[in-house]
Specification:
The chain is of the alpha/beta class. Helices cover 27% and strands 27% of the residues.
C-alpha cells in the first residue's frame, strides 16, 4: 500500500511538472510568436530627409524618446494638389491656398501672373482675401483639390494598431471639412408679386417655374436666405406687392432656410395676411429674422448653431417704413442702443455677427439702358457708407444691405466686410437692366469666422426666371462694382 501510494504521488508530481513545463512553453511560445515579453522587439523610427525640421519637431512631440514601436516606422512627406485618393497611412499635415487681392475679380490662378497671387497657410485665410481656384478646382467646395497639400506618409506594418491611435486625431483636426464648414447663401430682395402673379396663371400655377434655373444651385447650401418683402394673400394680383399662396412652393424649391422680413411691403396685403404668412414660414421650418407678429418678436436676434459654428443674425428696417412699434406685425425698427447691445452680447459669446439693413433705396429706375448710378455705395439717400461702417465699428463682422433693388459695390472695412446692396433675386421689373440683377453671397464659415465669401451674380429674363449670370457677363459686372468701392 505504501509503495503504491508513493508511485501515485510520484506520478502526480511528474504530471504536474509536465503541465508546468507545457504551460511555460506555451506562454513563452506565444511571447515569441507575438514578439512580446522576453522576446519583445523594439522597432526603429526613421525621419526621411523629405521632412522639414519643423515637421520633425511636430512629430517628436508624439514620438518621444520613450515611445517604443514593435514595427519599424519610416515617416516621409510630399506635396500634391489632389488628396482625393490618399492611402490610409497618408495624412494631410498642411494646406496652402492661393489668394489674390480682395477686389480682384479673376477667380483662377491661370488668369493671373505669378506676381499677382501667392499661397498662404489655410489658417491665415480670411474674409479680406480673395481665394482662387486651381484649374477650376475651388478648395472650399470639396476640400480635396484647389490647394497645395503637404502630406505625411507613415510606413509601418503596425500603422493601424500602433501609429494611427496616437497621431490620427491631431491630423484630422488640422483642416476644415464638409462636416465642419458651413455654407451659407445670402440673397437679396424677393417679391413674387405683380406681374409674377399673372405669369403664374399663364404657366398653370406652378410657382417653381420662376426658380427652375437656379433651384439646384441655391438648395445646395447648408443655409439659404432671402429678404422676402411680399406676404402671401388671396388678394394677390398684377397691381399689388402680394404673393399668390402657391409661391411658397418656389421658396421650398430653393431650399429656403431663413427669411428676412425687414421689407417695407410685407404689410401691403394687410396685417392678417402678414401674420398668416409668418405661420406659413413656421409650419415649413423656415427661420425668421428682422420681422414678426409684434415688435418683441420682430426684435429677436436669430441664433444659428450649425456644424459647430455659432452665428448671430440681426436684421433691421432703418428707414423705409413697414416697421412694427407695438403688437402689430411688421419689420424690426432700427434703434442704435439695441443694435449696439445685441452686437456686443454676440461678440461676448464669440459668435460671428451678420447684420442686415433695409436702408433707403437708390432711385435710378428711369432708363431702359445701362445706368451705373446705383453701383456706388453713396447712391442711396442718407449717408449709407458711414451708417454701414458704424455697424462694423460696433463689432459686426458682416453688414449687408438687403433693400437695394439694384446691386451695389462692396468693401472691406476695419475688421469686417460690407455689401452695400444685393439687388433683386426674384422680382418682376424686367424693363430696367439694373433691377434684373442680384448678388448671392456664398459664405464659407469655420470655427465662427468667415473663411471666404464668394460673390455670384444672378439675372432674370423677360419670363422673370432667375439664373446664374454667364461667366463673361458676371466678370464684367463684378469689375464694374469693384471699380467704385469706397
Amino acid at each position: 500500500m505504501v509503495r503504491r501510494e508513493r508511485k501515485r504521488k510520484s506520478f502526480l508530481v511528474v504530471v504536474v511538472f509536465l503541465l508546468v513545463i507545457g504551460f511555460t512553453g506555451v506562454f513563452f511560445g506565444m511571447q515569441y510568436l507575438k514578439k512580446t515579453g522576453l522576446f519583445k522587439q523594439v522597432g526603429t523610427i526613421t525621419y526621411d530627409d523629405s521632412l522639414t525640421e519643423s515637421e520633425k519637431d511636430f512629430l517628436k512631440k508624439y514620438f518621444t524618446e520613450d515611445f517604443e514601436v514593435s514595427n519599424n516606422l519610416t515617416i516621409s512627406a510630399f506635396e500634391t494638389t489632389d488628396i482625393s485618393s490618399l492611402e490610409s497611412n497618408e495624412l494631410v499635415y498642411e494646406v496652402n491656398v492661393p489668394i489674390a487681392d480682395f477686389y480682384d475679380i479673376r477667380s483662377d490662378i491661370s488668369d493671373l501672373s505669378e506676381e499677382e497671387y501667392k499661397f498662404v497657410p489655410l489658417d491665415q485665410l480670411n474674409h479680406s482675401m480673395k481665394l482662387l481656384s486651381i484649374n477650376g478646382d475651388y478648395y472650399l467646395k470639396d476640400f480635396t483639390k484647389g490647394a497645395r497639400f503637404r502630406v505625411m506618409k507613415f510606413d509601418s506594418d503596425g500603422f493601424d494598431s500602433e501609429i494611427k491611435p496616437i497621431i490620427y486625431k491631431e491630423f484630422a483636426d488640422l483642416s476644415p471639412s464638409k462636416d465642419t464648414v458651413l455654407t451659407f447663401a445670402q440673397t437679396g430682395v424677393t417679391a413674387f408679386s405683380r406681374e409674377m402673379n399673372n405669369k403664374l396663371a399663364q404657366v398653370g400655377g406652378d410657382a417653381t417655374f420662376f426658380v427652375e434655373n437656379i433651384r439646384e444651385y441655391l438648395s445646395s447650401f447648408d443655409l439659404t436666405h432671402t429678404s422676402n418683402e411680399s406676404s402671401f394673400s388671396d388678394s394677390a394680383n398684377n397691381n399689388n406687392i402680394c404673393s399668390d399662396k402657391r409661391f411658397v412652393d418656389a421658396l421650398l424649391a430653393i431650399g429656403l432656410d431663413i427669411v428676412e422680413l425687414t421689407g417695407n411691403h410685407n404689410l401691403d396685403c394687410g396685417a392678417d395676411d402678414a401674420i398668416d404668412t409668418i405661420d406659413v414660414y413656421n409650419s415649413n421650418n423656415i427661420k425668421i429674422v428682422g420681422g414678426g407678429k409684434n415688435a418683441t418678436e420682430a426684435n429677436k436676434p436669430l441664433n444659428l448653431n450649425e456644424k459647430g459654428n455659432n452665428i448671430t443674425m440681426l436684421a433691421y428696417n432703418q428707414s423705409t417704413g413697414g416697421a412694427t412699434y407695438d403688437d402689430t406685425p411688421g419689420a424690426n425698427q432700427y434703434y442704435e442702443d439695441d443694435a449696439a447691445t445685441n452686437i456686443a452680447a454676440a461678440k461676448e459669446r464669440g459668435d460671428l455677427v451678420i447684420v442686415d439693413i433695409q436702408y433707403y433705396e437708390c432711385s435710378a429706375y428711369a432708363s431702359a439702358s445701362e445706368d451705373d448710378t446705383c453701383d456706388y455705395a453713396n447712391s442711396s439717400a442718407g449717408d449709407q457708407v458711414s451708417f454701414f461702417r458704424h455697424l462694423i465699428d460696433l463689432g459686426a463682422d458682416v453688414v449687408v444691405g438687403t433693400s437695394a433693388h439694384q446691386p451695389q459695390t462692396f468693401e472691406t472695412y476695419g475688421n469686417g466686410v460690407i455689401y452695400y446692396g444685393l439687388g433683386n433675386l426674384f422680382f418682376d421689373q424686367v424693363w430696367w437692366p439694373g433691377t434684373t440683377r442680384s448678388l448671392v453671397l456664398e459664405h464659407y464659415i469655420y470655427k465662427n469666422r468667415i473663411l471666404q465669401t464668394r460673390i455670384t451674380p444672378t439675372v432674370y429674363d423677360n419670363n422673370m426666371q432667375t439664373r446664374l449670370m454667364d461667366e463673361e457677363d458676371a466678370a464684367s459686372f463684378l469689375n464694374r462694382l469693384t471699380r467704385v468701392h469706397p
